[in-house]
Amino acid sequence: MNAPAGSEARPIRWGIFGTGWVASAFAEGLGYARDARLVAVASRSTLSATAFAQRFGIPTAHGSYEALAADPDIDIIYVATPNEHHRDHCLLAIRAGKAVLCEKPFALDGTQAHEIVEAAREHDVFCMEAMWSRCSPAFKQALAQVRDGRLGPLLHLDAQLGFAKQPTPGNRLFEGAGAGALLDLGVYTLALAQAVFGNPTRISASRIRTAEGVDEHVDILLGYENGCSASLSASLSTTLSNSARLHGREGVLELHAPLYFPERYSFVPVHAAGEPAPISPSVVRRYRQHPLLRSAMDRLRGWRDDLRKDSKPFYPVGTGYTVEAEEAMRCLRAGAKESADVPLTDTLAVMETIDHIRRAWIV
């Protein structure tokens, strides 16, 4: 059931599939969203659903996903189950007439993603991937700057997202069909590249695998018809910069860490042609080793770069889960079947790119 257009006064009623840590984080974030009501949760275990409901003050706990899908008091379901269940649980909710916000990755591959989208369109219900980076105010403003031409003709994107994780038993990042750095973190960098450049025409990739064959580090090179390129990295084995830099002929735009939900971006213009000529190299060589002068020059360069940098902070109320939920609710109230911030065409394109990356693995 989708909330009717114009029903701005009525709270949006949420249900959650799953009771794991992602579901818990979403429940906490939803508490900051205006006019949102978390009214039901479902798990395969009645005991687990009941404990979750008591923790978050949720009125109804269902001992099956089917029961929540059939609940008439639900407008939208957040799918927070393990990655390998996203397709089945999205289809369950959609076929019951419920709107869906599905945790990333949207599915395991392009085929599954197309099944979900086709079902949503067939049943005329709202559907959105919970890609909270694209709902970030900083991300949206930075993307608007790019599309307005502030960077001039675009050239290259460098994006990294990585954290050192331990492959402990039962860790979903390293076990199951949906495990690995590509699906857990690589989707953020791919979503950014898709938003900026569109569909790639050339794809190459390499990976480092665990002893069990799970990709723990991924490097991706994308090329585009207009000559632009993207260099993307995702890692579960080491900490990366967790930021992105987009280069254009007239400037560089940086999305600051954490890339999965940036709260700040900055723009640095390319040096103008009329700037004073640099100091003679021979003079630099003569004095640059003096410690006091070198320290002073470093501070001056830092101040100069800060003055040139147009940096914009955005601190939304709540968390990334809050803003993605608010975007879904905005769409429901408007009667939209998908989000302009996280369009299904981009979600499908990213999943198809992931398919190509897997075929292009260089072991």
Explain how this protein is built.
With 363 residues, this protein is an alpha/beta fold. The chain folds into 2 domains: 12-134 and 320-350, NAD(P)-binding Rossmann-like Domain (Rossmann fold), CATH 3.40.50; 137-315, Dihydrodipicolinate Reductase, domain 2 (2-Layer Sandwich), CATH 3.30.360.10. Helix content is 37%, strand content 23%. It has 11 helices and 15 strands. A 9-stranded mixed beta sheet has the order 14-13-12-11-7-10-9-8-15, sandwiched between helices. Helix 1 (21-30) crosses helix 10 and helix 7 (181-197) packs across helix 11 (344-359). The longest helix is centred in the last third of the chain and has 18 residues, at 291-308.
Provide tags for this entry.
363 residues, alpha/beta, Rossmann fold, Dihydrodipicolinate Reductase, domain 2, 2 domains, 9-stranded mixed beta sheet, 6-stranded parallel beta sheet, 15 strands, 37% helix, globular, disordered N terminus
Number of helices: 11
- How confident is the prediction overall: mean pLDDT? 89
- Per DSSP, what share of the residues sits in E-state strands of 2 or more residues? 15-25%
Question: What count of domains describes the coordinates?
Answer: 2
Per DSSP E runs of 2 or more residues, the count of β-strands stands at 15
- What is the correct CATH architecture of the largest domain? 2-Layer Sandwich
SSE ordering = EHEHEHEHEHEHEHEEEEEEHHEHHE
Helix content: 25-40%
The Rg value, from CA coordinates, equals 23 Å
Q: What does the main sheet amount to?
A: 9 strands, mixed
